[in-house]
Design goal:
binds zinc ion
Length: about 290
């Protein structure tokens, strides 16, 4: 599944290739890709023909296109396997092509998704926290640590108010978005905190450290993944290879901690595996 830095790579790639271009036609090649557009694929295509992409924005792992700088937007989620490809019109269709955007000139934009958990839909823009206009279905999604307008102190206060386990709130998209299981474990390892720490006992300093660590590890992944572009046929899924090389905790069970040499442990949390160092990240005495 694409993580937040990969989605930001996709956003930047889309901004380079589709911003300011006018859509001449949209072909929905598979109805499941527009299942969240309740009026159906025909309406989806009709609503976008003739409109110009005036913004490519992101909140957490959701992307959207502003069209005509207006009152609605095209919301996209990559799901497990979604990709955005920029391709010349005469190129043979990709195997799992789901939606094809044709512009009044230049290459097409293809939404390709093997497993079809992702998709696109058109929604009105509504005001969200902070006053930004965002597509209605994601109005509850908080800003992520890579967002230039991310408010660190407000996010720390939001964490401490929750009265739950630290890792659970790191994964709560209404408090901080974009932190998945991998980045939560990496941020907790860097901040030397166990995921079961009760949030109401966390100091502000610890809260700032764990969110700062999340931003650092995401920025490092973005730097590693930001070079995977090709002008002709762009896979803006941005698979960076970062995870193969740079993880300190996630997936490292039984390997020595890079800080202290103690074997990394694997525990179960929220039906998934959590990875941490038993020495650097001791279990809290008090838990929920
Ligand atoms: Zn350690």
């Amino acid at each position: 599944m694409p993580e937040l830095p990969e989605v930001e790579v996709v956003r930047r790639g889309l901004a380079d290739h589709v911003l300011g271009r006018t859509i001449s036609a949209v072909a929905v090649e598979h109805p499941r890709a527009v299942r969240r557009h309740v009026e159906g694929g025909g309406d989806f295509a009709a609503r976008l023909a003739g409109r110009t992409i005036t913004g490519v924005r992101r909140r957490g792992k959701y992307l959207w296109f502003d069209v005509d700088g207006g009152t609605d937007a095209v919301l996209a989620h990559l799901g497990m396997s979604g990709q955005m490809l920029v391709a010349e019109a005469d190129r043979p269709a990709a195997k799992h092509l789901r939606i094809r955007f044709t512009f009044d000139d230049g290459p097409q934009l293809w939404f390709v998704d093997q497993r079809t958990f992702g998709g696109m839909s058109v929604h009105p823009l509504v005001p969200a926290a902070g006053g930004d206009l965002v597509p209605a279905p994601i109005a509850h999604i908080a800003r992520d640590p890579m967002d230039p307008a991310f408010d660190l102190d407000a996010a720390v206060a939001g964490i401490r108010r929750k009265r739950t386990e630290l890792k659970r709130v790191l994964l709560d998209q209404t408090v901080i978005s974009g932190i998945g299981n991998i980045y939560a474990d990496e941020a907790l390892w860097r901040a030397r905190l166990h995921g079961l720490r009760p949030t109401e006992l966390l100091t502000r300093k610890q809260g700032r450290e764990v969110l700062g660590a999340a931003a650092e590890v995401m920025d490092a992944a973005l730097a590693a993944g930001g070079t995977s572009f090709d002008a002709l046929y762009v896979n803006v899924n941005g698979a960076s290879g970062y995870f193969d090389r740079s993880l300190d905790a996630y997936g490292q069970a039984d390997r020595p901690c890079r800080r202290c040499g103690t074997p990394i442990r694997r525990e179960s949390f929220m039906n998934r595996s959590s990875f941490s160092c038993p020495r650097c990240q001791p279990r809290p005495r008090t838990t929920h």
